[in-house]
Every structure is written in C-alpha cells, then in structure tokens.
Amino acid sequence: MHDATLAPVICLDGPSGAGKGTVGRMLAQRLGWHFLDSGALYRLVAVAGGKRRLDLDRPDALAGLAHGLDCAFGWDARGRERILLDGRDVTAEVRAETTGAAASRVARHPEVRAALLARQRAERRFPGLVADGRDMGTVVFPDAPLKIFLTASADERARRRHKQLMEHGISASIPDLIQEIEARDRQDRERAVSPLVADADALTVDSTGQAPSELCAFIVELAGRRGLF
Ligand code: C5P
C-alpha cells in the first residue's frame, strides 16, 4: 500500500527513445504532477564540463560541477522547451545527440551520480512526481509505488529520436541514430553503477506502435487502481 505521508512517484525508466519523455510529460500534465527529466541533468553536466574543457573520463571536477549545477527548466512564449545553464540558453546543446553520448560517459561515474541524487529526490513533492530516467526505480526512488520500464524496438526509438531532433532543428540520419542509440544503451546497461535495468517491481511495457496518449491512459488507470490520486 502506498504511504500517504510521502508524495507518490511514478518511475518511467528505460532505454533512450522509448518514449519516456513524451509519455512522462503528458502523464504529469494530465495528473497535475511535477516532472523530473533526470537525463537532462546528466546532459547538463556534460555540457558544463565541455565548456570548461574538463576530461569527461575524470570524475572529481565533474562531480563538483554536478553538485553546484546552476540550471533552470521552462518554456518560451511559443511553448518550446528552454533549458538554462548559468543563466544562458543551452537547449540546443543539451538536446544534441553528441551530448547524449557525452552524458552517458559522465553518468558512469559514481561521484557524479551521488552529486545529483539529492537534487533529484528534492523533486518529490505533492501532489506527485513523474520521474523519467534509467535508475529512477532502482536507485533514486526505490520505494516508488509505481514503476514502469518502457521499451521499444531500436528502429522505432531511432525514428522517434529523429523526430525530436528535427523539432529542435537538428539534422540526423536514421541509420546513424540506430547505431548511436544502441552504443549508448550498451554503455548504460553495462556500467558498474546504477546500470539501465528494470527493477524487480517494475512493469515492463513495450511501446512499439503505441501512441503516447494510449500509454498515458494505461498508466493513469494503473495509478488510479493503486490509489495514487
Ligand atoms: O534520457 P537521456 O537520453 O536524456 O539521458 C542521457 C544519458 O544520461 C543516458 O544515456 C544515461 O547515460 C544518462 N542517464 C543516467 N541516469 C538517468 C538518466 C540519464 O545515467 N537517470
């Protein structure tokens, strides 16, 4: 039974391009809950590290950066996502596919992960939180009352990533994206700390061929049945 003294969390974990971001944002909006895009934090550490010309394979300075990360998330007048780092708009850099790969390198370091933990947990506020990532259910919110592990075929994930990148004005080829996505997922699955893996309590859902609105409705129903709202 869900502990009503704690804000409920719905964890959405899974490989890149499985639809976590789209479904998660929709779900948060539908429920009126907060949304945590944990991948954006790793991406921001990679961007901040790049700007300072830090070696992404050396954890000490990166962990310091992660700890003091000065960032903000919002939307512009046209409803497009805007991400600020030290007060400057870095949205396009954060969303670039090369930053995804750099984030995956940065995310291998336990020091960096530890430095981002408190910031992620602080997002757990009433009426509830939808948390998107790789280790939401296994590490960040292990007591979450609902954990979904979202998957999709590599082709479909690459197509979705392609659409997202185009929306951000970034061009890419689908075959290249398939390769990049598979390489990044391998690195995420095989790392020693907080690897990408479904928690024992998680429900695995294959989103291939499913509309985000259908997935969202399915998760809302599950959450309702578990008494989360
Ligand atoms: O979700 P997104 O593609 O933005 O994540 C970028 C990278 O950040 C992932 O490939 C993964 O290496 C890392 N990440 C992580 N743990 C999370 C979220 C993202 O290690 N909770």
Structural notes for this entry:
The chain has 229 residues and is of the alpha/beta class. 49% of the residues lie in helices and 16% in strands. The protein has a single domain (9-223), classed as 3-Layer(aba) Sandwich (Rossmann fold). It has ten helices and eight strands. Strand 3 (71-75) and strand 4 form a beta hairpin. Helix 2 crosses helix 3 and helix 5 (97-106) runs parallel beside helix 9 (174-190). The longest helix has 17 residues, at 174-190. It is globular, with a radius of gyration of 17 Å. Cytidine-5'-monophosphate (C5P) binds at residues 16, 38-40, 42-43, 100, 103-104, 107, 133-135, 184, 188.
Quick overview:
With 229 residues, the chain is of the alpha/beta class. It is 49% helix and 16% strand.
CATH superfamily: P-loop containing nucleotide triphosphate hydrolases
Number of strands: 8
- The gross shape turns out to be globular
Which CATH class? Alpha Beta
Order of helices and strands: EHEHHEEEHHHEHEHHEH
CATH topology: Rossmann fold
| β-strand amount | 15-25%
Number of domains: 1
Helical/strand content category = alpha/beta
Q: Specify the biggest β-sheet.
A: 5 strands, parallel
Round the Cα radius of gyration to an integer and report it. 17 Å
Q: What's the average pLDDT?
A: 95
Q: Percent helix among the residues?
A: 40-55%
Strand order of the largest sheet: 2-6-1-7-8
Which small compounds were modeled alongside the protein?
Answer: cytidine-5'-monophosphate
Report how far apart the termini are.
13 Å
Unreliable segments of 5+ consecutive residues: none
